[in-house]
Write a structure and sequence with these properties.
Number of helices: 5
Strand content: under 5%
Oligomer: single chain
Number of strands: 0
Largest sheet: none
Bound molecules: fe (ii) ion
Shape: elongated
Helix content: over 70%
Amino acid sequence: MKLEIPKPLVEEHEALHAELKRATGLPGATGEAARAVAKLMHPHFEKEEAYALPPLGLLAALARGEESPGMREVLPLTDRLESDLPAMLAEHRAIVAALGRLAEAARAERHDEVVEFVRELKLHAQAEEAVAYPAALLVGEYVKRVLRA
Ligand SMILES: [Fe+2]
Ligand SMILES: [Fe+2]
């Protein structure tokens, strides 16, 4: 059982990162607003990749009913996510506010692809709050119950 972030989620983060990086190189208010987003997003992504998303690597095996003693390794990660969740959600709110300023600048300076990126990143944060974070927390709860049984 490996604690690896599912590949599509790794690629989604990489793609968002690449699009943001491109936007930070733009001149004017759009580039400036993109750099403000990047400052907030970088440490947030690192935390997600360290402990919020790796527990999802167990989902498919757990759904098949596979269990192994090694799965207890997920618990420090899910415990950390549980205690950090309010901070992670606050980071999302700060990122979404910065994205609002980025969308405004991008619209004014006619960077349509940046406006589209803002939409994608907002959707990404919503998907994490509705699916990825709760699923990772459930993995921790489930593993605790299985190990206790
Ligand atoms: Fe993310
Ligand atoms: Fe996030």
